[in-house]
Specification:
Elements (H helix, E strand, L loop, with lengths): L1 H34 L3 H5 L2 H27 L5
Helix pairs in contact: 1-3
């Protein structure tokens, strides 16, 4: 049962990280809209905007993989 608890903890932490990152990205969009800027300017260039999107994608994939691993994990005695 210990392995399953660890997998659930990893899933919950990755989900929490994804939600925090999504909220920060949402706030970035609100700031950009209110002040008439672009996300490139706020993030420091196109490369860092791409890295911001990549972070969200990787966190989403981590959530999916860790969620799948919870149901596929088998206890070996």
């Amino acid at each position: 049962m210990g392995k399953r608890k660890l997998l659930i903890a990893v899933f919950l932490l990755s989900l929490l990280s994804l939600l925090i990152s999504l909220k920060l990205f949402w706030n970035l969009g609100i700031f950009v809209d209110e002040y008439g800027l672009s996300p490139d300017v706020v993030n420091g260039g196109g490369f860092w905007l791409t890295m911001d999107w990549l972070r969200l994608l990787l966190l989403f994939l981590l959530c999916v993989v860790s969620g799948i691993s919870i149901f596929k994990a088998k206890e070996y005695k």
